Amino acid sequence: MSGPFSQDVQSAIDATRVAVAQLHGELTRNGLVVWTGGNVSGRVPGADLFVIKPSGVSYAALTPENMILCDLAGEVVPGTPGSERAPSSDTAAHAYVYRHMPEVGGVVHTHSTYAVAWAARGEEIPCVITAMADEFGGPVPVGPFAIIGDDSIGRGIVETLTGHRSRAVLMQNHGPFTIGATPTDAVKAAVMVEDVARTVQIARDGGSLLPIPQEAIDRLYDRYQNVYGQADDARRATPAPDASAQEEMYA
Ligand SMILES: O=C(CO)[C@@H](O)[C@H](O)COP(=O)(O)O
Fold this sequence. Notes:
Low-confidence stretches: 241-251
Number of helices: 8
Region (Disordered): 232-251
Number of domains: 1
Catalytic activity: L-ribulose 5-phosphate = D-xylulose 5-phosphate
Organism: Plantactinospora alkalitolerans
InterPro entries: Aldolase_class_II_sugar_metab, Aldolase_II/adducin_N, Aldolase_II/adducin_N_sf
CATH architecture: 3-Layer(aba) Sandwich
Oligomer: single chain
Bound molecules: 5-O-phosphono-D-xylulose
Cofactor: Zn(2+)
Largest sheet: 7 strands, mixed
């Protein structure tokens, strides 16, 4: 798709630019990145397009106008604001996720310390606290080692998270990638995965971890996804994998 766009699509692009630019501020506010590491993208509702940050640009300099509009092949849409700059080095990975997971509206990558430490060990985060059962419905899985810049990271994310309750994957030796129904939802998952990575690490440093029975994990997850919060919460737009599929995976 190339411009000029219909008024509806242009409005959606403009709103996505604002949201994605602002959400980068959450990565720095929550201490999930240093310098120019990490990135947020958002699908443009109603169009085969997404918005992502330019590569290697200071967080303080990110604005709606310098966000970059891409098609779902990961190509920059020429002639649009920001298109003169190189997009994020993870653009191909984000594009792959949007192509293969139509329910996903936002993708986030950070280098948050504790999550990266689990990724460096290639170790999934076990589900030993209720906050994890609520948010991720089980352990946070590890994805394969993948080279930056092509489809490999995207393939690893999609292969690992398809049919999985978790909206976060720890790409081995690299770090967390999270998905969500919206860009905000994906940023929330990035904040939460660092929080649980830190807490579980501290717990394990202090002694043995106590597992939560699968049946309790299922109940906590179901309640958090379907009862907690408000009925119009964006994450409700994404149907969660059913419990039986999860049980097979954990068997
Ligand atoms: O780890 C990586 C590359 O996967 C990134 O997080 C970079 O650290 C930030 O890259 P840009 O989005 O600025 O290109």
